[in-house]
Amino acid sequence: MRHIISVLLENEAGALSRVVGLFSQRGFNIESLTVAPTEDATLSRMTVVTSCDADEVEQITKQLHKLIDVLKVCDLADSGHVEREIMLIKIRANTRDLRDEIKSMADIFKGTIVDLTPDLYTVQIIGTSEDIDNFLTAVANVAEIVEVIRSGVCGISRGERSLRP
Amino acid sequence: MEMLSGAQMVVRTLEDMNVDKLFGYPGGAVLHIYDALLESSKIKHILARHEQAAVHMADGYARSTGKVGCVLVTSGPGATNTITGIATAYMDSIPLVVLTGQVVSSLIGQDAFQEVDMVGISRPVVKHSFLCKKATDIPEYIRKAFYIASTGRPGPVVVDIPKDVQNPQLKFPYESLPLSSISMRSYNPTLVGHKGQIKRAVRMIAESRRPVFYLGGGVIASNASEKVTAFAKKFRIPVTTTLMALGAYPGTDELSLGMLGMHGNYAANMAMHNSDLIIALGARFDDRVTNNVAKFCPNAKIIHVDIDPSSISKCVQVDIPIVGNVDTVVDQMNDAVKELGIEQDREAMDRWWEVINGFKAEHPLTYKGDGTPGLIHPGKIIQEIYRVTKGEALMVTDVGQHQMFSALYYPLNKPRKFLSSGGLGTMGYGFPAAIGAKIACPEDEVVCITGDGSFQMNLQELAVCLQYSIPVKVVILNNRSLGMVKQWQMMFYQGRQSESYMDAVPDFVKLAEAYSQVGLRVEKEEELGDVLEKAFAIKDKTVVIDIKTDPDSRVYPMQIGGGSMADMFINKTERT
Hints:
The complex is a heterodimer. By secondary structure, chain A is of the alpha+beta class. Chain A has helices at 15-25, 54-66, 96-108, 129-142; strands spanning 2-10, 32-37, 43-51, 70-75, 81-92, 112-116, 120-127, 145-150, 154-157.
């Protein structure tokens, strides 16, 4: 099962390497990982997406919590949450038909064209990982994908629940 | 306010943390600190002969006293040499603070002389680590290191200090602060158990018909031995201990079943397997205890008390998890017993003890019939040492057959009297750890039980015994083999002894003499008692006793791999 683990940790040198090291050391997989400082510059917020069973995710959260730098850990997939990922995708668009087609697909997915050359469109898509997968599949059917970069998931729980120090 | 350099702050902070012994080895990146150390009258430095041994010494000091062991070494090879020692302490949850020098800040990342990324290389085997980027970090990080090492589940902490940060020319204001001044928003170990869970646990204990205590190193780490002992006696619950917990419950007491696990007592493993309730205190269901977890104690409910939440339900799913300090939780359990007016079914306990006494009678612990007639059996040696030391020695072991014979045939009645590398299984641990324990506990009779293999991994530390006049007893169970490796080869590799035979064992008696210590040799069983008496009468020097033992002896009982706790080889010919 897919889990979205949200971690609040000290924004200190080495904190990220401890988290990454923990995953490799204990044989846990990481599908994606995003990290950046919060509104409080001494704290970072991290989102880790992993696929595993219930026992394993329990170990992952416990082991994360055991790290001295970590303040709070929760599995967002346990309850209501919002998740978003951003993708920048460079697509070969060297005919008028292709350009029209890609533009209309981008519109359907509420994407924006953020760069263009006579031959290339770069499209930005924001959505759930599933939305992004769907856009990728749709584009791949009609045009050549030159390059893809995805941010990985960042997530937040719905309503009153929050991860604060 | 007092003005101190970085190097002076290191020394002063260690003094503030009540460090009285510092184990280490100087080198380029810690010269400033070593220079400042000359001015300290409170800290005695012990110069090891290898950095790994320095860490084991600090580990022996920590295990025998419960205090934090402290180490100071240089960068690069000095730092990498400590890794095995740090990993040993990490696996057994031993509080250490290891200070390592680092190249000057501007050279970090340049592959400078004696540079190694110590924070990175030690990361998987430390509880936490710090890199001091400026001199004023030093007091804060060292205090936090002591706080982290000694609280919650104890463990080793590394503090890496670049040479420029130690600069004796630059002085900064220094304020003395005690350990109690430390608080960290991201680190607050849970000490008190959940009240509801404790009530459930106490009811479950009262309702159980076949309970057993499974004690681990956490009982010793939290200094809870007396309370746990009183609780077990009150309910007459049988007690089995892991290797790490030997002495946490009196080994000669009638409720004690001795050690459990791979080489555990038959009765201990059978009691576990046939129990209906396991009360695990500060133990972690290690694979050397459980055997195959799928077949682990099929009818038992499990109460698991541990200060580390990640230890709970890691290997075996438990019924009542309680996160907390064993000492505190046992107090809470006593309170709950009173509050709930718990009454135990005494008759059920009588029937359970009949069953257990049956196990004891069925296969009592013995080495009779094992090995070669006429040659000295290791079990016999441990029993003789027990007799000569009246069971009161501080036993330190290396790793291998001799370790298991010590655990089985030397029942300990007090905690912190049996030091052994349990989790990592580090050959070479014993001798330096014994030196550290003797330095910490000079009144104790410290005995290092080792093998010809293990002793040769750190025998250079004889120089420390010479330099500081540290009198320990080193008993070498010399079978000219790597006994445990050989045992496995005989049992599971059709007797093909690949590299387990040492064709060139040195003269250990002459070796001891080369370091101005005493060497004694035993070749026949009839000499054994007399030579041991003679050895233990020597109080001012280290005595190395080289005892020629039977190379064909094996450690039994031994769990059968892949089976349950009740599946054991009883001896060479019998199995369950």
